[in-house]
Design a protein that fits this description.
The complex is a heterodimer of chains A (about 425) and B (about 130). Helix content of chain A is about 40%, strand content about 15%. Chain A is α/β, with parallel strands linked by helices. A 3-stranded antiparallel beta sheet of chain B has the order 1-2-3. The chains are: A alpha/beta (about 425), B alpha+beta (about 130). The interface of A and B includes residues 372, 373, 409, 414 and 429 of A.
Amino acid sequence: MSTAIETGKKPAESKLADKLSERGRNRPSAPIYLDYQATTPMDPRVLDAMMPYFIEKFGNPHSRNHAYGWEAEEAVEKARAQIAHIIGADEREIVFTSGATESNNLAIQGVAHFYKDRKNHIITAVTEHKCVLDTCRHLEQEGFKVTYLPVKENGLIDLDVLKAAITDKTVLLSVMAVNNEIGVIQPMKEIGEICRSRGVFFHTDCAQAVGKIPLDVDEMKIDLMSISGHKIYGPKGVGALYVRRKPRVRLQALIHGGGQERGMRSGTLATPLCVGLGEACAIAEREMGAEAERLRYLRDRLYKGITEKLTHVYLNGDLDQRIPGNLNLSFSCVEGESLMMAIKNLSVSSGSACTSASLEPSYVLRALGVEEELAHTSLRLGIGRFTTEQDIDYAIEEIVAHVQKLRDMSPLWDMVQEGIDLKTIKWAAH
Amino acid sequence: MAYSDKVIDHYENPRNVGALDKGAEDVGTGLVGAPACGDVMKLQIKVGSDGVIQDAKFKTFGCGSAIASSSLATEWVKGKTLDEAAKLKNTDIAQHLSLPPVKIHCSVLAEDAVKAAIEDYKAKLAKKQKAAD
């Protein structure tokens, strides 16, 4: 799989990060941020767009009778159009929410409840985000049937397994475009084709995908799409749900009230947040190509830099079908949490059990068939708009040095060096 | 997770990292935990003819508190007799390091490792005496 890794020429656009670094980058003494799948800093240009709507243009966008309301409404509608544009939708198909979690809840519960008299079966995948899985579990308690599709070793669902799972009672398929832990991209177009031909609504959690990969709701036959603000350099606390009009998808609302957002989501819109999400989409749409190229260069440099100096490092998830800003690596014989403690000048996350409250290693990695001992040794490295080449080179140095140090104190590493197969040892589980 | 200063100190400056000759008669080795659970400790003791632990070494695969617990355990058992060392309690380790509740099992593992090392040494000793008889 390593054939795709070639650290090519530095793309010309790499000045972008330096240019924006004055306001958008890390604080000088702060750790280097390599956790862009958890959240992103806001792009300063997004903040600039939002600022007027806090104090000066503070109107309620639903006020129909005065200029304050009109200017706020105009701003919100412009943002709605910007969001629609990046996914090839119509602005009337965009519903503002508080974030992707709410969007996922609204899409899945909304469809399930609206069509419950005719259909009661939902399909999703085991590697979905917790907010999709937990919503499905909740619906199971209400009596809905849910099928959780397995994934292949590379993290992608098997289309034949999907086809076989669909019944005449299936109302909805919910599959994320890009996985938050391993960054793999599902075959959206093929999935959309299958769903449309079988009369199943296709919902996709695109929190990690919008602005990272080209998306087109018509080409991919997507019926519902969840969008997040803070994963794309926009503000936290805002998201959107795309709801197809033709053929129409109907939802039962979760939040009732004044009937805003065509009755699908009541409540006064947060004008600055909507503006921020819109601006973040507009920037992402303009710069996606150049940014992807730059991030791929950095990502490949990081991967190559680490694997040239360390052996027994394993990539989790497909390399080619993957967004450029993500690496998920297992460092054999080094527990993830202790590695994170060691590389304290880097802010990353781990699939290790010790970093979770449940003491279970990452369910996403487990679903790929990654053995538990390797799941405990994983790090997710997320790079993004404000990551510089300097950051990457520093990260390589830190990671390599501390993995070596921790391996020197790992009894497992000794055994691996001695050629002992760890599986042949009878471990006392505890 | 915010660890206590003591955990961080033991993690950053671990005491007694290394290995003793596990084939040596006066060395007892304890290997506890499991890779699938995310922690494995190897703790070794070198015992003098007077039954006093002269040296202790460890290697640990695990989180920061697992490393700190084993580091502390090696520090504590050095200079103790086998009987004294066997009385080492996980609660003492947990208390000393102010481990958060989810990390208590790390201290349990350290206690197990000490006990396993003592047992290994005693088994070697018994075998040797049997051979001598």
